[in-house]
Amino acid sequence: MPEDMIKAPPAGVFAETVLSVTHYTDRLFAFRTERPASFRFRSGEFVMIGLEIEGKPLYRAYSIASPSWDDELEFFSIKVENGPLTSVLQHIRPGERLLMRKKPTGTLVNDALLPGKRLYMLSTGTGIAPFVSLIRDPETYEKFESVILTHTCRDVAELAYGHDIVAATRANELLGEMATEQLIHVPATTREDYPTRGRITTRIEDGSLFAGLGVPALDPETDRVMICGSMDMLRDCKALCEAAGLNEGANNKPGEFVVERAFVD
Ligand code: A2P
């Protein structure tokens, strides 16, 4: 179809060509799109993306998984069988176009945290998306001495995306040294055998997370936390941060921990 035959997107919306799609499991996939030249965002932010379904645009909030310097945009998504958006989005192919609202936002950004020694990124499932943006941003390593990315999933196959990005980041010409020296990746499962097992909340409560890292328990003086997962996971992790004396931050009032819900269709 000639370019001028393709319907123009509504005002305030970009229509970006999909460049690649990678399916990790029957529940998870990642895809990359072109990045509009005028689109600016901070690593860790989310944006509304969508498709026209039965003649109507349908949008959901997705964290941008690529860092702010990247020429392309990357997203990591769950597939929900009857999910209004993901049941269609999971079939997207290179060359097709994705709708994206023009304004990014979010609290999982370096600006919303006070400086500290250690940054903990607590993620479950697709909640890793904003963190794989931040671990590819040099600013994260300039602000924190160590960056601890915890990714807890039901089974081993669901950890593959995180493993791939961490490995690629450590091999990257510009980020490799920082990511090798300062980034600690802590993958874990809850429903399948794996060297590290158990919910992140359990491993914080019983101290095994800190013992494994060889560091003291959460301390508002030195530690900062970003949390991204399901509503229940956020609530429980937030309670643990507050019990340790950390205060919640926001863009206009940086604090010691920040929270954001991972996309669920
Ligand atoms: P579990 O297997 O014990 O339910 P999901 O794919 O359902 O979003 O879950 C992703 C991961 O988050 C799973 O390992 C799951 O553990 C874990 N999880 C679910 N609820 C919580 C919670 N309230 N606190 C911490 N982890 C949770």
TrEMBL record:
Its cofactor is FAD. Belongs to the ferredoxin--NADP reductase type 1 family. It catalyses: 2 reduced [2Fe-2S]-[ferredoxin] + NADP(+) + H(+) = 2 oxidized [2Fe-2S]-[ferredoxin] + NADPH. Its EC number is 1.18.1.2. One of its GO terms (molecular function) is nucleotide binding. InterPro entries: Cbr1-like_FAD-bd_dom, FAD-bd_FR_type, Flavoprot_Pyr_Nucl_cyt_Rdtase, FNR_bac, FNR_nucleotide-bd, FNR_type-1, OxRdtase_FAD/NAD-bd, Riboflavin_synthase-like_b-brl. GO terms for biological process: cellular response to oxidative stress; heme catabolic process. The keyword Isomerase does not apply. It comes from the Bacteria. The keyword Transmembrane does not apply. It comes from Pikeienuella piscinae. This is ferredoxin--NADP(+) reductase. PROSITE patterns: FAD_FR. Residues 11-111 form the FAD-binding FR-type domain. Keywords: FAD, Flavoprotein, NADP, Nucleotide-binding, Oxidoreductase.
